[in-house]
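Slide 14.
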Amino acid sequence: MSTLNEKVKALAPDLTKAFPHSPHAMLAGYILAGRAVDKCRAELAGTLGDYHYDCPLDNIFLGFAEIKGADLRAFVATGADNAAVGQWIEGHAKKRPRIEIIRWNNEWRYKRICELSDKMQEFMEDYIPKFVPPDVIHHVRYFFDIFDAEEKRFKA
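Slide 15: predicted structure.
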């Protein structure tokens, strides 16, 4: 195994045993970015478990930043740490005024399920009762709460 693969493996979370960062976790000033990088590293290290990199959730961030998932994956595969990945994102994301990024972060941070597309609402109607523990379902107010509840970040 190459040194670069060893760096990636050392940085990669084992998503067969733990959870990626919350969608709220910020990297390079963007929500969802830290979670996407966790899943990317885990994919490269073979520890992705049931998660998927470059999935619809990751693509909310990637689409807004106008970064291709494959390009981010190629950089993460160099063994770059979060500081270097953050700098890479800042250098490759579409240039926007800071307030535009802040507004986008807040829009998604506080997006209610009823504000999602019809297709996504229909998907979540089945997903939530299947994956969100019943003792914390009352905490689900916003879209990202689904993941935080499922990944045991809420106490009953």
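Speaker note: Residues 104 and 152 are 26 Å apart (CA to CA).
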